[in-house]
């Protein structure tokens, strides 16, 4: 350790930053700095390509988060962003230019649908939306100027499962980049890289961080594609903060155990709802009644923590059920340790037209659950109580 010769004012500013490091820390340190000192200007020029130049370019804590996700995905590299939407918008702007065309499945997160249909046309980039699981329609929509095949699986909120093999076959045949929003699938329940998906994106706000306390996004892929995306991130300034990266690293450490528990709880919840007389329909990839059950079992190692159901009643009944819950918190978002409930037509899909919602199969009677890691019996008891609200005239007491 250096001899302490600095006065308190100096020490308060510089802290322990230049104390010699004796032993490496077990937890990754947070490099909460916007810039990095260099010895001379030649070094300054050299470090621009590293994570020790300026934090908008990169930062050692952020690098640890990115390398962890890349490794989880089985991809060469990854980049983090300030949000999931930041990851999607920056990636698409990095890879496409005016005159290019995208084929996207109809069931995409509402914010993505808005970006593709309302924002990209301003830049002269058009998108054709196709039926999510009709791959002939995907192929028919491909044009000479198509560059990107954009998919999401499982989908929000109907939990359709997209066939990665068919998507990558199409992308290969037509020379397109395939990009998957794998937020609902997590890197634990599915491994898109094994099928040849080029880019996998996550809203890290959800399962990756896992505690409803962080907003971030991550994109993984080949070093070549990530280098292009990195260039756009640096220019657009859509980077993550080092502290948020540290929280993501912390969250990632428990991802596998959280997801295993969420899979188990969600399966029980889905089976319970499937038997309930006040439930018209349950959407869960690992239920036999799911339209892509076979594909889901082949492509996924767990059904995930999301369960969507439709009440046997009206949109008002769905709202009543969501408000009557005691354990499931009424809040948008998903993937955290705590169970949440939301009404898709009022939250994730509020920003898209009723007509498009109908095509996606998103109904007013739909209730979306993000199942957490609580005791499964307690969650089922909460649902049992809340479902009593269906068909009643008044909201069930939440007292
Ligand atoms: C499937 C999916 N993709 C992307 C996003 C956007 O992520 P973020 O809110 O981190 O920008 C969300 C947000 O809910 C989502 O559910």
Q: Main traits of this protein?
A:
alpha/beta, Aspartate Aminotransferase, domain 2, Aspartate Aminotransferase, domain 1, seven-stranded mixed β-sheet, 15% strand, binds pyridoxal-5'-phosphate
Write the layout of secondary structure elements.
Blueprint: H1 8-14, H2 41-46, H3 60-73, E1 77-81, H4 84-95, E2 101-105, H5 110-119, E3 126-130, H6 135-141, E4 146-152, H7 164-174, E5 177-181, H8 186-189, E6 199-203, E7 217-221, H9 223-236, H10 242-253, H11 255-275, E8 279-283, H12 293-299, E9 306-311, H13 315-324, E10 329-330, E11 340-342, H14 354-360, E12 366-370, H15 376-387
Parallel strand pairs: 2-3, 2-4, 4-5, 5-6, 10-11
Antiparallel strand pairs: 1-7, 6-7, 8-9, 9-12, 11-12
Helix pairs in contact: 3-10, 4-9, 11-15, 13-15
Bound molecules: pyridoxal-5'-phosphate (PLP).
């Amino acid at each position: 350790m250096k001899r302490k010769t600095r006065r308190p004012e100096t020490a308060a500013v510089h802290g322990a930053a230049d104390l010699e490091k004796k032993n490496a820390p077990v937890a990754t340190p947070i490099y909460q700095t916007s810039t990095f000192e260099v010895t001379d200007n030649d070094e300054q020029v050299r470090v621009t390509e590293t994570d020790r130049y300026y934090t908008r370019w990169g930062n050692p804590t952020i690098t640890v988060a990115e390398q962890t996700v890349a490794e989880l995905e089985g991809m060469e590299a990854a980049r983090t962003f300030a949000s999931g939407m930041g990851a999607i918008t920056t990636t698409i702007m990095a890879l496409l230019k005016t005159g290019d065309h995208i084929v996207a499945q109809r069931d995409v997160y509402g914010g993505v649908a808005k970006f593709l249909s309302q924002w990209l046309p301003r830049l002269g980039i058009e998108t054709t939306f196709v039926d999510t699981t009709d791959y002939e329609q995907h192929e028919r929509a491909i044009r000479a100027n198509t560059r990107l095949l954009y998919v999401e699986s499982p989908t929000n909120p109907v939990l359709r499962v997209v066939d990665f093999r068919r998507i990558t076959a199409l992308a290969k045949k037509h020379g397109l980049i395939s990009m998957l929003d794998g937020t609902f699938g997590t890197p634990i329940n599915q491994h898109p890289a094994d099928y040849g998906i080029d880019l996998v994106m996550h809203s890290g706000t959800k399962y990756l961080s896992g505690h409803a306390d962080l907003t971030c996004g991550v994109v993984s892929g080949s070093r070549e594609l990530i280098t292009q995306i990195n260039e756009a991130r640096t220019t657009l300034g859509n980077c993550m903060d080092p502290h948020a990266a540290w929280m993501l690293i912390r969250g990632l450490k428990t991802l596998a155990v959280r997801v295993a528990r969420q899979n188990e709880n969600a399966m029980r919840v889905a089976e319970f709802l499937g038997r309930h007389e006040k439930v018209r329909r349950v959407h869960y990839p690992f239920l036999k009644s799911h339209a892509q059950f076979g594909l889901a079992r082949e492509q996924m190692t767990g059904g995930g923590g999301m369960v969507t159901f439709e009440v046997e009643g009206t949109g008002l009944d769905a709202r009543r059920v969501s408000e009557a819950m005691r354990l499931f918190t009424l809040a948008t978002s998903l993937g955290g340790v705590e169970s949440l409930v939301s009404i898709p037509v009022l939250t994730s899909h509020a920003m898209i037209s009723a007509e498009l919602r109908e095509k996606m199969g998103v109904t007013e009677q739909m209730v979306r659950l993000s199942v957490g890691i609580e005791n499964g019996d307690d969650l089922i008891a909460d649902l049992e109580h809340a479902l009593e609200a269906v068909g009643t005239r008044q909201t069930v007491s939440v007292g």
